[in-house]
Amino acid sequence: MIHVVNADQFRNYHDLLEEAWRLRHRIFVKEMGWSAIARDDGREIDEFDDDHAVHLLAVADGELVGYSRLLPTTRPYVLSSHLPELCEGPPPSAPHIVEWSRIGVSEKVRTSGRRLNPTALDLLTAIVEWGLPRGIRGFVSEMPTSWLLRLLQLHIHALPLGLPRTIDGVEIVAVNAGFDERSLRQLQAVRGSTESVLADHSRSTIKLAS
Q1: In terms of residue numbers, what domain contains 146?
Q2: Which of 62, 66, 85, 146 has its CA 20 to 30 A from that of 160?
Q3: Tens digit of each residue's pLDDT (9 = 90 or more) over 77-115
Q4: How far is the C-alpha of 207 from the C-alpha of 38, rounded, in Å?
Q5: What total of structural domains would you count in the chain?
Q6: Does residue 51 sit within a domain?
Q7: pTM for this structure?
């Protein structure tokens, strides 16, 4: 189940958000070697974890098993502020486009093989399911080039914003990915279920701060 959490819910999700900061540290600092963002407290938090961020928490049996973050592109975000070299033109900026970043899955639920991890698939489904009724029609993201084909197979129209670059030993490309109702149907088909991936409160009118 995916809980969509913005600043108004931080108090209710304090413990899970603390788990999220520590999961991010394990993935991005310990595993991926992003030493520049390391903190002594073992929590990975940056300047974008503010009142404008929306956090997607994948929870199973009361435990955090996956995480990602959405940011509005109408104000500074990770790609525009720290990785503009991945774009051959200006980074996208529009009310209907968010940035999807800090995507991670707990060690306990990782899978091998070519199929998209079920928790990662739920996180992606949550963006589309939650975003469509709110007028969101796409996301930008910095991702391994191998993800491009997977997005297209999920009927998400992913277009590179520039040529790939090697960052920390991984070939990364910035993409502008559009989605619609057809994308949601394909995601549901791949998941094998039309049931919502969103927790009950997340189906309400939580909005990105502008």
Answers
A1: 2-203
A2: 66
A3: 999 999 999 999 999 999 999 999 999 999 888 887 667
A4: 30
A5: 1
A6: yes
A7: 0.91
